[in-house]
């Protein structure tokens, strides 16, 4: 495994661990998701450059577009949650009280 592959794999694993263990605020969960998507974007970009495959060249841009849509939906949910509940703590959210 090259150092670049190790770096992006460890960045993805750290984002996944942060998402799994630090679930106190919605904003920290969204930041962990963004870190995971950014490491996937960079890894996929390097993968297409190393293979010299022109057929896979739109894939990183498509992933980046989906990541931007995910970030905007997450921020909209964060604002809606902060307005209705007054906080972004995930323990205060109860799905049974819609």
In brief, what are we looking at here?
It catalyses: a ubiquinone + NADH + 5 H(+)(in) = a ubiquinol + NAD(+) + 4 H(+)(out). It contains three helices and no strands. The protein is mainly alpha-helical.
Describe this structure in words.
This protein has about 100 residues and is mainly alpha-helical. It has a single domain, classed as Helix Hairpins, CATH 1.10.287.3510. It has helices at about 5-20, 25-50, 60-85. Helix 1 (about 5-20) runs antiparallel to helix 2 (about 25-50) and helix 2 (about 25-50) packs antiparallel against helix 3. It is elongated and about 50 Å long. It starts with a helix and ends in a 13-residue tail after the last helix. About 5% of the residues are buried. The model has no long low-confidence stretch (mean pLDDT about 85).
Mean pLDDT value:
87
Stretches where pLDDT falls below 50 for ≥5 residues? none
* Class based on secondary structure composition and strand pairing: mainly alpha
Instruction: Give the strand tally.
Output: 0
Give the SSE string. Answer: HHH
The CATH level-2 architecture is identified as Orthogonal Bundle
CATH class: Mainly Alpha
Helix content: over 70%
Domain count: the total is 1
Major β-sheet profile: none
Radius of gyration: 17 Å
CATH topology grouping: Helix Hairpins
What does the overall shape look like? elongated
Q: Number of DSSP helices?
A: 3
- Residue fraction in strands: under 5%
What separation lies between the terminal Cα atoms? 48 Å
């Amino acid at each position: 495994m090259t150092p670049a592959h190790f770096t992006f794999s460890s960045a993805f694993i750290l984002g996944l661990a942060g998402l799994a263990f630090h679930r106190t605020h919605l904003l920290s969960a969204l930041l962990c998701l963004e870190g995971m998507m950014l490491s996937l974007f960079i890894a996929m970009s390097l993968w297409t450059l190393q293979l010299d495959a022109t057929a896979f060249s739109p894939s990183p841009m498509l992933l980046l577009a989906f990541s931007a849509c995910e970030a905007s939906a997450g921020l909209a949910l964060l604002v809606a949650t902060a307005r209705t509940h007054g906080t972004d703590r995930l323990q205060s959210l109860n799905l049974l009280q819609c």
